[in-house]
Structures are given as structure tokens and as C-alpha cells.
What does this fold into?
Amino acid sequence: MNRKIWATPFIVWMVIFTLAPIVLVLIYSLTDASGAFTLDNFAAFLDPIYINVLLRSIGMALLCTLICLLIAYPAAYFLSQKDIDKKGVLILLFIIPMWMNFLLRTYAWLTLLESNGLITSAVNRVLSLFGVQQEVRLLYNYGAVLMGMVYNYLPFMMLPLYTVLSKMDRSVIEAAEDLGANRAHVFTRVVFPLSLPGVASGITMVFMPAVTTFVISRLLGGAQFKLFGDLIEQQFLFTGNWNFGSAMSLVMMVLLLVSMGIMNRFGDKEGGGVL
Amino acid sequence: MKKKVSGAGGFFKRAYLGLVLLFLYAPILTLIVFSFNASKSRARWDGFTLDWYIQLFQDSDILSALYVTLAVAVLGAVLATILGTMGAIGIHSMGRFGKGLWMNVANLSMLTPDIVIGVSMMILFIFCKLELGFLTMLLAHVTFNIPYVIFSVLPKLRQMNAHAYEAALDLGASPGQALMKIVVPEIMPGIVSGAILAFTLSLDDFVISFFTTSEVQNLSIMIYSMAKRGINPTINALSTLMFVSVMVLLLVLNKRSSLIEKR
Amino acid sequence: MSVVESTHLIDLMGVSKTFDGETEALKPINLYIRKKEFITLLGPSGCGKTTTLRLIAGFETPTTGRILFEGKDITGVPPYKRRVNTVFQKYALFTHLNVYENIAFGLRLKKRPQAEVDRKVTELLHLVGLDGFGKRTVDRLSGGQQQRVAIARALANEPEVLLLDEPLGALDLKLRKEMQVELKNMQQRLGITFIYVTHDQEEALSMSDTIVVMKDGFIQQIGTPTDVYNEPKNAFVADFIGESNIMRGTMLRDELVEFEGRPFPCVDKGFGENAPVDVVIRPEDVKLTEPEEGQVAGVVQSVVFKGVHYEMMIRTDAFTWMVHSTQCRQVGQRVGLSVIPFDIHIMRRSVTPVEREG
It folds into this structure.
């Protein structure tokens, strides 16, 4: 009668492959190369070089999240109105890119922005018409990385917003109109507050991968442009300082769990969903 | 009068949506178009060719990466589905404490950033003296897929009539029979969507694979290392094929789910 | 009433159930169930009736005590090896199987030949009035039809005992009444034992051979519907089964009880002298008289027409009486009330566990 035993393989697996690695990271972060206990790894992180990278990562991720929200909210709102997207087909077009390999999406931008890419060539041609001879470089800078992030994560903002907006009870809006709210009031007082759970899960779904990425910065920002993810990758794959890398991984985990906790206070679990 | 206003608004809305779609699809479409371009240029059209596709299928590295990607995705999804479904059934019948504990562990694994999962598993494998390669990549994929299966199956278990399992026992089924003949078929939609989710996540993964393998590469790692070296029309061809297969897969799934709804 | 044989089919001996080491759902009870009887476990939610049923089905193991089936101990026998089948409260039909396969489920497990399965399922569909429904999917059926499938499915294994856990709870009133009659007929035709769980006293009274009234994990009373209605053992039973006026009183001596500030002659004895008791009087047993002719007098507070009778609330000095009468009185009118000794039921204040005689 006891069906709990069915969970045993799962439990064993999770203990070995999820909990044990986290414990190992914890141990590495609190020891030095000889294995002795130390807090130096965390102290080293306080160096302005690293703190600046951390702040830049957070800043970029926030900016990316904000831009995604500003682009996606009107789009999701329009799509949720049945007169625009009658059969709910159009929304699929906005979601499909989510299913594409994100390296592929990043690579697509790379081809447009690199020095003889379509956009760069076009910009340079236009500039030369105005007598500007110097060629612009659109790749390997802050803007390129931010652009790549927005492009990559926009669908992740669309989906939860659309889900919550399209499920919204029309009679709530009608009730607000009935009670004398004009269109602006209906939106600010009723629609937007009701859509907050979707906004919250959209923010989580964008901010979380954006703050940890190292691929977008490496491909679109070049070797010199570093984000927090690049630092971790570097410690493990090039510098070989696992202790410092582990400490940084822990900082990142805590950072994310805390921001997740903050967002969860606004959203509910149904707001987005992974699909 | 009113109709006219909404008509103008409708035009504005459509134009806005059109712009967003352009932003989303222009890079991909450009990439596809230039995969058929006769020259290496990404700005000038020099005529149609299939050379890049031919090169692609002659490149043994890319073909073996394709094989690795599919093998890991299929094996990873199957293993994760079995472990995850069993786990969900077990968790579902636990008391409040056990349920909370193990759902939180599954949650933790979903909320941990990919890069942290990647490096922590790398540490584990090296710690256990496991050589990084196909096996370690597969183990990592199973691990990050399991929670997604769990959270696809659990809602179905909750929806299920709490007494259906007991009814089967009551009618003479042994606990194993009741599970296989009643519980599993009833939660099958959850199992299937969990498996599909696991498969696609696995196909898509780069970060975790990147840290848990060395010589053996999947397509994502392949694209990454090629892109770091610069643009290569062969990647365009590869990307086009991947894009088209994802589209076909989604269309098939969509057809299937709308068929199920109609039933 | 059906013919009841004297053999015990099921014995619960000192059976109790405690969940998670703290919630005492069922205090140790003794109960036997006869062959071919329709026995109802009746009580409010949380009284232990469903726990008792689940113990008999084998879904729960008793914390203490033993369960016998035809004299053999089945305490540790798993549900799939017991010769009892259950009709669940919310049906618990298998939604991925059609009506036919739901009913055939038990037979398939026993690897019965297809011809027999066919014959049996057709027979059962006919029994529950669903001829030709075999190919339907179960979630397209109405509540009443799902109920019938659940009954047919439980009967397919030809159980000795059918356990029914509030099977009519989800149906509307009219359908519930029809199903009550049908279930009773079915039980008599099949000649098997029905153990029926409900909180609906009317349902219990109209269907059962025996009613077991339960509260707080204790059995309060066991008896025929007439016994339980006419001779409730305590104030709880009196209140739960039908409507009652329940007053605190003192047994002055045998056949004389004091309440409402005056003595009333009654027929009960053996309570001792000056013993605190509950006095129970059914609303239909109170006679309306002229104010000066009654044993007590009061003022009519409200009158509600109930179809067959008027229901009046009448306030006396000490109590508000509920009276059912075919005569109508005006609100504010002063009336007299009287009760014949036979209709005054005296009960002990304390609630004690009950065992079944015989």
C-alpha cells in the first residue's frame, strides 16, 4: 500500500546529482587550495574589479528586463484582445522563438551586426551618403550585448503576460466601465493590477537567465566584455581556481534566490508556467 | 463613429505587433536566406547555392555532434521521464513534510542558474574521477530534466480522483497492477508533456552541457565554438535546418494537441 | 423487511483507528454485520463512519482490534484479496476507460474468458438500467449514470458485501429518492449485504434493516429504523434522527420527571431518584390545547406552513417548543401544550458506547 517507495530512485538521484554538487560547491568556496578553511574566497570577491562586473551584470539584466517588459506588455495586451488575434494563432508566432536554440538566436544577431553584416553595411552606406567616412562598429560593445539579451529573452516575457491577460475575466473590465471608469482608468486601476502576477513571473523568467549569461556577452561583447557569468566560467575553465569560482557561484545563487523570493511575493505560481 | 475609432486603433495595434514580429524574425530570416548565398558575404546576394548544405553533410564533426545531441536528448528524456514519474507518484503519496521537502529540492534544482548547475556537476564528476564525456553529459541532462517531469505529472495526480487507485485495489488489482493499469494511464498526458519538455530542453541546452563534457560535443557547443572563431556559412545552413525541424516539431505537436482537444 | 439470517458475516472486535498517532477517528468499537442485511452507518461528518467502511474494505489497517469475515481473521488482508467491493463517494471511475471496460476491470484482472466478460457486463448494464451504454466514455455521463456505472463495476466481482460511501451525495434530490428505492430493490434481488454510509437520516430510515448511529468515533445506538426513531438512546440520537425538543430535566422517581418547572408523568424507570436526564419530545407528539387546559402554556412565536402540517415555535417560561400540528394558531396567541406519558422519552445525560445485542 505504501507508494512512497516509488520515489526512492528519484530521491537517490537528487541527493547524488543535485544536493551533493551544491554541498561540494559550498565546501570549495570555504576552503583554500590546500583544503583548509578560509573566508578569503569571499573576501577576494570584494575587489572593485569583481564588484563592478557584478553591478554591471545586475544593471544590464535589469535594463534588459525593463525593455522586454515595455515591448512585451503592449504586444501581449493587444494579442489578448480577441478582435486582433481571433483564433489565438498569432501568439504562437511570438512564442516560437522560445523553442529555438538560444545559441542560434544569438548567432543570428552576430551575423547581422558583424563588420560586413547586413545592418552594419547598411548603416555604413547611409553614413557615407552624409559624408561620414569612418566605419561604425556595431558589434563587441554594450549595446550589442543588451540587444542580444532583449532579442533572446523577449518571448519569455510575452508568454506569462499573455497567459494572465488572456485569462482575465472580461466581466471585470465591464464592471469597471459600468462603475464609471474610463479606458485609462480601466487599465491603470483594473487590468494592470490584475496582470501583476504575470508581470512578476515575466520579470523572473527574463532577469534570471539574463543575469547569469556568459554566452551572449562572449559572442556579442567580445573577449574583453565581461559579465558575472564570464567570471565564473573563467575561474573554472581557464584560471582553474575552483575555490574562488565556487564562492562566486554561491553569491550568484543567493542573489537569484533572494530576487526570486522578492518576485514571488508579487506573483503566484500559476502566472506563467514553463510551456 | 465608434467603429471608426476602433478601426484606427486596430491598425495601430497591428502595426505595433508587426514591428515586434519583424524584430523577432528578421535575424532568423536573414540567416536562412544567406545560408543559400553563393558567396561568403552576409550583406550582398551573390546567387543561389546549396554548397553550404553539402559541406555540412560532409563534415563528420557536425554529424557526430548531431548524433550526440539526439542521443542525449532521447536517452535523457526517457530516463528523466521514468525517474520523474516514479518520483511524482511517490511524492504525491507522502505526508506534508516529505512532500514539502522533496518538492523544494526539485524547485531548488529548477531555480539554480544553469551555469551553477554546470560547474557544480563538473566538480562532482571530477571529484568522483568520472571522465567528462557523453556519460557525464547524459547524467547532467537527466538531472536538470527530472524536476520538469515532476511538475508536469504532479498536477495530473492531483486532478485524478483520489479514490481511483483504491477502486482498482478494491476490484482485485494488486498495487503494481493498480499503478500500471489505472494511475499511469490516467496521468499519461502529464507524462507525455513532461517527456516532450525534457526532450526539447535537452536539445536546447548549451550551458550545462558545456561544463559537463570535454571532447564530446553537441550541436550547441559546436555552434558556440565555431561562432567564436567567426561567421561560417555552414553554421547558417545548420541553423536553418535546426530552425525548420523545430518548426515542424511544433506544428506536429500543435496538430496533435488540437486533435486531442477535439476528441 | 428482508429475512435476516442469524449468522455473522463480518465482526469488528475492539476495532479502533488513530491517524498519524494523534487523530482518533474511531474509538474501539464492537459491531457485527449479518448476511444479507442492509446496514447503514449514520452520523455527522467526522463521526468515524467512513473510517469504519474503509477498515472493512481494507484501505486502512486498524490501530487496535481484529476484523473477522465469516469467522476468519482478515485484519491484515489487502483490499484486493477481500470479497467486498466499494462504491466510492465521487464514483472514482477510470476516465481513460469506457463504461464497458470500467465494469469489466475486475473480470479482466481475473483473466475471465471474453465471452463471460461480455455476458456479465451486459447483465450488469441491464441491472443498473444502462443497456447499450457500454461504448460511452465515462466523463460524458450524467452524475446519476456515473453512479450506476460505479455500482455495476463494484458488483462485477460478485462480492459478498457491497460497501457504499455516501453514494448518492452528489445527486439532486429527486434522483436521490429514485436511487434509494432502486438500491433497496437491488440489494433484495441480489441477496447480498449492503453496508451503507450516509449523513442523511431520512435516507438511512427509508432503506436500512439496521441503523448504526455514530458520533465522535463512538457508536451511539444500533437498531432498526423504527427503534432508532421511536426509542432514541440519547439526546444526540434523538436530535440527529428527526426533529426533537430536547430539555434538561430531573428524574424525580420512576415514572415521574420534572422539567419546565413542573412534574410530568412518564413511562420510564430505573434512573434512580433526582437523576439529571435529557427529556426528548417529538414535535408531532405535542398536543395543542386551550391555554388553561395544557400541562404548560406559552405564546406562539412563529408559524410556518410545511404542506402536511404547520410548524410552530411556542415560547413557554423555560423553553421554546417546536410543535407540528394540523391546526393553525396565530402568532402572539396564547396556547396550552400537553404530552401523553408514552411520548416523553427520558435519556441519560452521559454518552456511553453502545454494543449490539443478540
Chain B has one domain: 53-262. The mean pLDDT of chain B is 87. Residues 53-262 of chain B form a domain with the MetI-like fold fold (CATH 1.10.3720.10).
